[in-house]
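Hi F.,

I've been meaning to write this up properly since the lab meeting, where we talked about keeping a consistent format for the predictions we share between groups. The idea is simple: the sequence comes first, exactly as it goes in, then the structure tokens exactly as they come out, then a line or two of notes. No screenshots and no reformatting. I'm using this chain as the first example so we have something concrete to point to.
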Amino acid sequence: MCGITGFWKPRGLDDGAAAVLERMMGLLHHRGPDGQGVHLDRALGLAMGHTRLSIIDLQTGAQPLFGPGKKLVMTVNGEFYDYKPHRAELACLGERFATKSDSEIALHLYRLLGLPFVERLRGEFAFALFDQEERQLLLVRDRFGIKPLYYRLSDSGLLYGSEIKAILAHPETPRRLCPQAALNQMMHTMVPGTTAFEGIRALQPGHMLIVREKEGRLAAEEVAYWDFVYPRQKEHDSDPDAESYVDEVRDRLIDAVRVRLEADVPVGCYLSGGIDSCSILGLATALQQSPVKAYTISFDHSDYDESAIAIEMARSARADQEILKLAAADLYGDSYVRTVWHAERTFYNTLGVAKWHMSRRVRASGFKVVVTGEGSDEMFAGYPFFKRDFFLHGSQDETAGLAALDASNRVFKGAILAEESVSHPAMDRLCGFTPSWIQPWILTLRRARPLFSDAVLAELGDYDPVAAIAKAIDPAPLEDRHPLDRVQYTWIKTMLEGQILTWGGDRVDMANSMESRPAFLDHELADLARQIPPGVRIRGGIEKWVLREAMKGVLPEVLYKREKFAFMAPPSHTDTRKQAALRALAETYLCRQRIEEAGLFDAQRVAAFVDGALGTAEPVEGARNDILLNHLLGLQILHQQMVADIPRNLGQ
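Output, unedited:
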């Protein structure tokens, strides 16, 4: 796990290129504090940098990696699993290795196979590979976007980096928050491929950017090499053998956990009170000879704290458990600001701050790697909004479950579940209905837009962020699909990469030089999950039924029978101490001077909103106000940190 950054200027590099690359790499130090590597080719105009977090091949795994005659150069962020059989196969074909690392297999596979080499790669990765003979630079991102990768293409060349701050550090990069992206962030849902900053794009999951040089200019094409496409409705098994799916899920999940325990350093587990992380811990315990280290977050509000179940699971697995208890003072203040710096986007809930604290605890205890449960809800339909749409649009036999679903998820009304049904014509056209997952954010948008300044509102014009999201999603994989498949697909294309795997995953973990490995997003397990009929994913009104049955033997009975509970930090309206801590942040970043300096919002309207929002006690209204306050603060902090100034490395 590392950081990569660089640039390609086909007209050549000047004398200051090395210093610029060093500054870009310096802003990624937290991603790779164990070493740095550089490749500069002034004639070709190529600069490639790598900051290393050593996990595999601690002695000889330094990067960049080179092919014969340095005609190929590669820098990698991430892990390739089952790399040893690849090395053996490649050795039999005459390939010779310079390191013992997993990363090097990609270089050799490309040499032998060309672009189809990506299909042979299993894991979480983002990498840059330069082919001098083809005058071609490849940027490649893993299938679900677990590892981040951003780029900026202009007339002068290409800039790229694991994090946006590295690109912003280049003197040619304009620094401006994009008003359209700001509106999308205020409603919590980004347009796939966009970032908070004008001119900087996120390479989309399962894509490669192919950049070619001709006559001193670069041309780029973003090409998909994989997608999570469900079968058409008629192709789903109409009379499924549910137990066979249970067996297959168990086998593939065991294998996904097995390969993620491979490392030359100790590997631990994140452990909440959910089925996902408890399953991971149970399997890791069985696969490892020594007790597994488990890390659990405990919140100071009973409605949001799952630590009791996590403790029961840790005892059952005989894990060495550490519990991190977090309160208001931990979730706001400096740690909040640092989390925004690392996330490079806003967040609706301070769970990201909590996970920043957790990764810091993991690193301080001597661990660099944990296996996590992210992705399970996406694969097996675990979220309550998936079940709601299954009841409404996909299973006439389950409509009676709606009332029970609403009652059991009352604490999430105004956040992940809308308090009223709303629709949008663009989503209706795309899916045949407006998915429940986006409905709370449509309601949030109504409250968010009026907070912007008149100048920004004029610039936005009739921009519709919901329509922009719908337009960015290819409709072909949704045609003639089951309603549950449609809602899962649209969520995966937007919120999985844009939220869960950024401020809920890589960015807050790597902030403290700690690698997280989400086993449920193994693409071999995913290829099975998308084939599972909807009525097996949700069966008898039970979400993630197939996973529950597969993991029944390792789960505590209370968890096996428990309904899905979203993992969130307590919002500010639940506690006067949290409201006071949030008010202190607002007084700093939402004051008139800072609002006017950033230019996004109207200071008077923001002041009126903040005064009303911080006094709200009603749960639904309080939840929505908390969301808007977090997004307001996030955008203002981003402007201060990354537009007005870029600190050397705020995160350390």
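Notes:
The longest helix spans residues 619-644.
Residues 391 and 398 are 5 Å apart (CA to CA).

If this format works for you, I'll send the rest the same way.

G.
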